Structures are given as C-alpha cells and as structure tokens.
Batch of 4 targets.
Target 1
Amino acid sequence: MSSQVPWSTGLCDCFDDVPSCFMTWCCPCITFGRIAEAVDKGQTSCVASGAIYVLLQLVTGLQCIYSCCYRSKLRQQYSLHESPCADCLVHCFCEPCALCQEYRELKNRGVDMSGKQPQGVAMAPMAHSGMRR
C-alpha cells in the first residue's frame, strides 16, 4: 500500500486562487464539472457532470453526496490524506471550500482546468451516417 501525502493546499486556502474561488461561490456546478471531467480523465464531460450537480441541488439539495464521491476518487488517484475529516463530511459542511481545494489540487498537479480543449489537438473527423445527397 502506498503512503498517503498531504493536500497541496488547505481546505480554507480558497483565496490562494481568487478566480476559481469566485467561480465556485457563484457557480459551483462549473467547478464541479471541471473536477469530474479531470478526475475521470475526460470520460465524463464537464457539462454532463455540472448538469447532474445542478439537478441534484435543485431536486434534493444533496449534491454534496455526488461531489464527495469525486473527492474520494481524487484522493485515491493521488494518494491524498482524508483530511480534515471524512470526504462526505467535508462536502456536506463546506462544499465550496472542498470544491476549491480539489480544483487547486488538480491545477497544482498540472491538470488543465480551463475547460477548453488543448491547442494543437485535432478533433477526430465525424463519421457520416450514410445519408447523402
């Protein structure tokens, strides 16, 4: 079993990255969507994850249960300590701070969190469905 390492920033270090802090406080679904897309290595889209987050927030108010799952995935990928307490508690009691910390962690590890496709990456050509004129 690999040893666990500390987070690169603390839970309450939101102002270390003011733009992402502001974005998270105004529209946490964007921050969450970007985190989910990064943690899932592009297998989940930012838009889909953000939409699920908003839907859960509007219908149940329990979007923290969904987002805490991604905190756990992030911790497992980078062998991070479960701190300052259990993932679900962090998200249930301090959702914006948790999202900011996860966003900063990914940025500090070199993950592009802009939500844009990297320059120089070619899109695969669209396959034609066979319907042509």
Target 2
Amino acid sequence: MIDLVTDLYVSYGLVGMAITLAVAQFGLPLPTSIVLMSVGALLAASDLSALEAFGWAIGGAVAGDQAGYLTGRLLGGRLERFAGRSDYIASGLSTTREFSRRWGRASVFLSRWLVSPAGPWINLTSGAAGMPWPAFTIWGLGGEAIWVAAYLTLGFLFSSYISGIAEMIANAGWAIGALVVTIFIGWRLWHRIAPASTDQGPENLDPGPA
C-alpha cells in the first residue's frame, strides 16, 4: 500500500489522494484509512507538509460527502424504488435510517470516524430526508477532521510498522462498527419486548375461576 500511495503521490501529488478519498466517501469501497496512514508515513520520510496533506485529505473527503448528500437530495423518493430492486440498497438504507433516528444530526458526525462504513449511506439518507445543508456540512466536517487527523498521525508515528498497523486498524474499524450496530439492534429489541412483558404482568393475568 505504501508503494501504491507513493506512486500516486509521485504521479498526481496530493490531488490524487484527495480524489481517492472523495470517490471512497461517495461509496466505492476503498481502504481509505490505510491510504491516510500511508500518507502519514510519507510525512515522516519526506518534506511533505503535514498541513497541506491534512487540507487536501479533508477537501477530498468532504467533496465525497457532499456528492453523496446532493445525490440523495436529487433522488429523493426515488431511493425507495431503487431499494425495492436491490436487497443490498434496501438493507443499507434501513440500517442508516434507524441509526439516524437514534442519533439525529450527530449520526453524520459519528459515521465519519466511528462507524465509517455507514458514512456513504448516511450521506444519501441525509440528503433524501432534507437535512439542512449547513448542518450536514458542519457535522460532516467535524467528523472528517477527527478521522483524517487520527490516521495521518498513526501513519506518522508508526511509519516503520505501517503494514501491520494498517491491517490491525482496518480490522478494528469493522469490529467497532459491528459492535455499535449490535448494541443498537439490541436496544431496539429490548424496547419492543419490554412493553409486551409489562402487559403480561401479574395484574393482567387471568386469575381463572374462583
């Protein structure tokens, strides 16, 4: 991955990295966290400006978020028709809508760095639901700043071990995402089961014939 990012930087500079992040944040499954750590490793081994790298990374990530939001805004109700034709789309939209209902606008912030696989879906549903653009942009920018800074720093600090660290972080990212989704589903199930249990309390049981 370091060789790939090095070639990308030599050929296109930080613009190439920004385009990669934009495409990934729009929805193409690319190892963006590993890309950022690789760029962080380059910071430790070259005269590349950390501030410039951070700026281009943020710009690319936010551009991808904005493209997803705009797509959702333009498609609107047509997303439901697409969902009816694809179980993958239906599952993605359903999961992120539940996540958005639980966390509100903060779901945009959390999906940039904590549950990053949900980010592209949140972009679409935020646009389709008509979330105000300034709110979406502010929450998204804050989350992207944390994500970019964290992974660039990891790459810089552990440049000698970047391959192992990249694999570990990639696995941890999916594990955290799975844990959050599991907790959320469990919470929803509990709130569905609890009222039913209450209705079957002793005061509601049929005492039978006297």
Target 3
Amino acid sequence: MTAELSLAPESSPLSRFGRVKGYFAKRKKRYLSAFVVLAHTAGALTSIEAIMETRTSQGAIAWALSLNLFPYGAVPAYWVFGHSELQGYVVARRSSAADFQYVSDKLRNALTERELRSEIEKPMGKMLEKLAGLSFTRGNEAELLIDGEATFNSIFEAIDAAQSYVLVQFYIVKDDELGRKLKDKLIAKTTTGVKVYFLYDEIGSLSLGSGYVRELRDAGVQIHAFSTSRRDGRKFQLNFRNHRKIVVVDGKTGFTGGFNVGNEYVSQHATLGAWRDTHLRIRGPGAAMLQVPFGEDWYWATGTVLNELSWTPSASESGADVSALCLPTGPADKMESCALFFLSAINSAERRIWIASPYFVPDEQIISALQLAALRGVDVRLLIPEQPDNKLVYFSAYSYLKDVQGTDIKIYRYNQGFMHQKVVLMDDDFSSVGSANFDNRSFRLNFEITMAIKNRDFAGKVATMLEEDFKRSRLMTQEELDQKPFHFRLASRVSRLLAPLQ
C-alpha cells in the first residue's frame, strides 16, 4: 500500500497559524521600514536645526554627521544635549545678571575706595579684567591645596570658624561619608546663628536624595538646586550646567578649584583609586570677589539678592600681597570668555605654558596657539590622566599626537591614579586654579570659575607641584599611536570628530 504525503488543509489550525504569523511578519517589516524612514527624516531635519543653531562650525559638522548617519541615538541625544535654545537662555540669563549688576558695581567701587585694586601692566591683565568684568585685587593671601585631605580639612576648618555666613556651591554633591560630614558641619553652624546658603547643580547632583536636602533645609540651611529652567517654567534642557565649585566664609576666606563633594574626591573611588586634584584657598578681597558669581547664580536660582552678605572687601590679616582675579565664565557671556582665557595665556607665554586638565579636547584655534607657542621656543607641557573616566575623551587625546609632532609640545599622562586638577602655569609669575576643563563643554557650555594669580612665589609653588606630577607621569609619543591596532586608531579619529560634543 503506497503512503502519500498529504498537506494540511487550509482550514487546519496549523495553516491558520502560518497565515497569522506571516501577516504579523509583514506588518512588522512595514513598521520597521516606516521607523527607519522616519528616523532618517528626523535626523535630516534636525541636522538643519543643528547647522543653524550650533555655536561653532565644528560642533555643527559633528552633529550633522551624527544625526544623518546614526539618527536612532543622535536625534534624542541632540534634543537632550545639543538643542540649546541658546538665544532664549542668553537673553534670560543676561537679564538676570543685569538685575544683580548693582551689587557688582558696589563691590568694585569699594575696591577702589579701599585701594585694593591691583594694576597689572601686561596687556593680558587688562584683557582678563575686561573678560571678567571684575578687577585684579591686591592684599590677598593664596594657599595651594593639594589633594582631598588638605582641601577638605581647610574648608571644614574655615566653616567651623564662620561668624556670619557660609556660601557653598558644588557641581556634584553626594550623600556619602564626605557629603554627610559637610552636611553636619553646616547644620552645626546654623545652630549658632550663622546663615548658610547652598547651591548644587541639579544634573551633576542627580543622585542626591531628597532626604539630604530636607535635613539641611529643616535645620535652617537655604539650599537650592541650580537649574537651567527659568522660574517662569521655561526649559533649557541639559546644557548650561553649573560646574563651579565655590565656598566663601564671611566674605573673607574663599575656596575654588577642581573638587566636588563625594568619597572619590578623597581617593575612595572603587575603580579610579587615588584622586589627584588641586584647590585654592584665598583670604582677602579675592574671597569677596567669589561672592559675585555665587550671588548671580543664587539670584538666577531663587530670584533673591543676597544683600546681607559683606560687600566691603578687606585685605588679608596676614599682610600678604598677592594679586588675584576672579574670572567667572559661562554660556551667556558676550564672548567665549573661557576659551579666550586659555588662548590669552598660551599666546602671552614667553618662557613656559603648563596646563593640567583631566579632559584634553581642544578646538583648532587652541591647537594652533599651542603649536605657535612651541615654535617660538615656549616650553609647552600638557598633563592629562592615563586612567580615563570618559572613553571618548581618552581616545580623542591620542588623535592630537599628530598635531603636536615636530613642535616640542609634550603631553604627559599621569599614571598614579586619576588626575582631575585644572591648573595653568604661565612663565614665572602667572598661574590659575579653577573648575574649567580643556574642552568644548567648559569653553562654551558650562558655568565655570577660575582664580587667576599674579605672584612669583605662588607660581613657584605651582611649578614645584606640577614638576612632581610630571615625575608621576609618562611622556606620550607618536610611535605609541602608530603601534596601536587599527580599531584603536579608528576609535581615536572618530572620537576626534565628536570632540565638539564632548
């Protein structure tokens, strides 16, 4: 008897299942095709917005390429990070600063009346004063604070000695051992009648729990998040972060530099290990000048002016006579003040320019300035970390080796932990410590603070510190990039293309 292969009738359950499966497969394919078309259309349209609105041609090119080649991730990233609503923000922020202007004028007038203005003869000094909208001050005492233990011991000591008020501002604040120690110090001062004003960035401190804030507020600390949103409800998304780190006590003692508040900043990070950073303590009129950017940020965040602060500066009680300038920079400045600061330091250098930064992602004008400085015989050294906390930045740095080849520019990679300091040393008498990194975000998008010091003794201490850092570093060479595998060299070049977005 011959067996015949029989197909299931069309009405069988198996056949119906096959037809249903095929139907959904076709719909899925149509939906996928529609999504691809929609994504690339959105990418193309958004790239037009990026070309029209992005502040630099490099940034516009980077966004246009990303939006058209990788729209699935680039489109949402642009509307979160790249779409700046810049003009609306600039108008709003400048209006806010103008409301606060009379306080700045009052402080400047007091400096003149008390003969605390320092006349800097070099053109760079005049230029920095115009960028800052503030004056170089004299009668300051400046102390270099190296690493976390020295920095936070000094900050906590100053808070303990506060008589009238304490101003605190950080980009990152964490509810960990160090963060709770700061909280306890501030709460203890409020019980003695000292007023405490606390600002933290809402994105940088995103992990900060409401309990931490509530405990401070319940104790009488006036604490607010710095947001790019207006009080009228308008949003300006995730750009324009407040990256400043400021502590001022009684208008007489001030601190600024690279440190935020978290255990990693005292070398307790699980993977980065030892944390190399630098802060600055200043006593005298320079401390009072730090109140200006804090006051502007406070007014933006709260709508109130801190009239109760001491806006009458006085010279340091130690008798020191260091010249110092407080240079606040940000995206609402009339010029790209932060980038111009670095450019002026590089272009003005006659003997040396040493720059330490955890992020080395300069634009073409900065690279050209470094090349010219080296070609005219200036000792150009750049100090960056060996161990990265950002892969894009890590790969980008290698791409600049070709630019410095043949110019005697030296790039050192610090390899004794993670290096986070932001320090500049120019010649034998000019240096700066602050929060600004050597990248596009600090140059154009973040609110930063830099304290520039014109003093030979202080510059000598900075030089000694950096020389020790160079000993703990290795010198990069072009050959090491050539010896890397192709995928590494490709990642380096692609990361360089995305430099304006980093």
Target 4
Amino acid sequence: MMSQITPITMPKFGLAMTEGKVALWSKPEGAEIKVGDELADIETTKITNAYESPVRGNLRRHVAPEGEDLPVGALIAVVADAGVPDAEIDAFIAQFQASFAIKGGDVAAAPPEPKTMQAGAWTIRYLETGEGQDGTPILLIHGFGGDLNNWLFTQPALSERHRVIAIDLPGHGGSTKQMDSGDLSTLAGAVVSLMKALDLPACHLVGHSLGGAVALQVALDEPGRVAAVTLLAPAGMGGPINHAFIQGFITSGRHKQLQPVLELLFADPTLVSRDMAEEVLRFKRLDGAEQALQRIADASFDGDRQRISLREQAAALGAVPVQVIWGEKDQILPPGADLPGGWTLHTLPDTGHMPHMERSAEVNRLILDFTAG
C-alpha cells in the first residue's frame, strides 16, 4: 500500500539554494491535482516562486506549515489515493522524517562556481553546467542591470538536457566594467568572443530584455554560431521603454530607493525580497559599475524610447528560428511589439518583465520544447 503514497519535497530552485519555506499553500488538503498545477508559493532568499506539482493524485496532507524554513529535500506534502487510510499516511510521514533526519537531510554536492575567462579584450564571468549533455548548447544572456544569477530558476532545468552557459555582459556582475562604448555591437562582440574562447558549436541563444537585442545582434553578425533564439521580453524592436525604471535603477543608492524600482519588474511586487535589492546594491557599488550602466543606457535608450531597432534586419535571419516570450503585465517594455513575421509569440498572463523568474516552469518548458523542435 505504501507504493500508492508519493512524497512532495522542498524543491531546489537555483544551484545554490539550500532551504526554503512554504509561503502559501495554493491547493488545500484533499484537492485533486494534476502535473503542472501550482501547489504552493515557495519563498527563498532570492525570490518567491510558484511550485508546480510533479505528480497527479489527491493532495492528502500538508506536512510543512506555512512560514517554516526547511532544507531542500524535506517532506512538505503527501499525495495518495483517496482510499489509502490515514494511518498509512501517518506511518509514511514518520518513516520519511526519520530517514531524512538520519541522513542529515539531502547532502547536496557543492554548487558549481562561476569562472572568469579572457575573451578578446574582455574579462567575462560565466557559469557553466550540464557538461556532457547531448542537446544543443544554450547560452543565457541577461538584461540591463542583471547578471548570470537572473537565471537561477532556468539554468538547472535546462542543464538536465543541455550544456548551459550563463554569462555576465560587460559592465555587469563579475565581468569587465571599463568600457569605451556601451553600444549593442560592443556587447554582442563580447558574447561572440566568449563563444570563440569556449570553442562552442552553434548555440541556442536565450536573451532577456536588452540581452534579447544582444542575442539578435549575435545572430545577425555570426549566424553560423546560432542554432535558434529565444527572446524574453526583448529590447531591440524600437518603441517605448520605461525611462523611470532605467534611471531609477542607475541612480538608486539605498534600499528604500531601489525597492520600488525593482518592483516594476514583476506583476506581483511582493516577489521582490530585501536580499534581492541588497544584492543589486552590492553590484552597483563595484568600481565602474554605475558608470558602465550609464554608458550602456545612453547607447541603448533615448529618454522613454529605444535607440535600437533590429526589426527589419532580424526579419532576414531566415533559417534561424526565433520564439518570443512576453508577460502581459510588463511595465518596462510593453508587450506586443511589432515583431517580424514567422516568429512564434507566447504571451503569459499575470506576468511582468521577468517571465523566467515569475513563470519559470512554463518558460523552461517552452525553451526545452523549442530546442527539441
């Protein structure tokens, strides 16, 4: 009878996550659930993220109370047929908890650490996972003000099938801050230099926001190095940009100033944690970081308009397939830009400018399906 009982455990969101808490149960005890249903909101030090059910069945028991910190792998719920007696559920929980305590929790291997590499004129920080996987390599390119940590919900899932490299663009994270120019050609050239230095075959490029424009520029400059492109809330199509966000991000020097700026990125502003704001502030305090951001902003944006429009050029990409994923409630780059014909557009409801963080499971599925296709 025990085989009819399935444990639901604290998920691992991101390579460095060691614990989390159930912030809110989305499904009550006794609910019939299917694969992909949102079971709970899981809060980490980075962000709160919806946890989708990996199984179908009857949600017989909430084991984890809301608000309690638990290690990755800890039992948070039990799924079982309605006919399984409560006594067997109790026994299963007791057995799981005892075994978990004896093992000391799930002792995970140390997460991979970012590396730096000299790529042409640039020192580029990158994080590589999934070495040895057979799928097309995937290169993750963050947006304005971001870094490779923006992919904490994306990189682990993609790494199950692909070699995945997340990078810090020049002016960001642990990469070179000294830049003569912050224009798109400079950023794309740095990406190509890294691809050459790593001797990468044709990659699937995934670019978010300004990183989307960078991905397109790489595809235009070096089409032989690009197998496909996924654009998340992309810049580079011309049109409006939220100037208040750009300037607020650059000039905010304290948590109280930065918090409301970061909240513009999400449909649900409560997803922005204090730790997230403090991490951004730590990056901005690095020598040359603020100046580099201003240089990139000056090259890319003109007040509330984008300087970059790759639409006509991108329409000529030809054999390189492109999909676009956009949140309906994006407050930074309005969804529904004038996209070239032949591109596939996925619009996600109740989602802002960070679909890979707000709707990570769905975005990951779309990327994996696209690479498989």
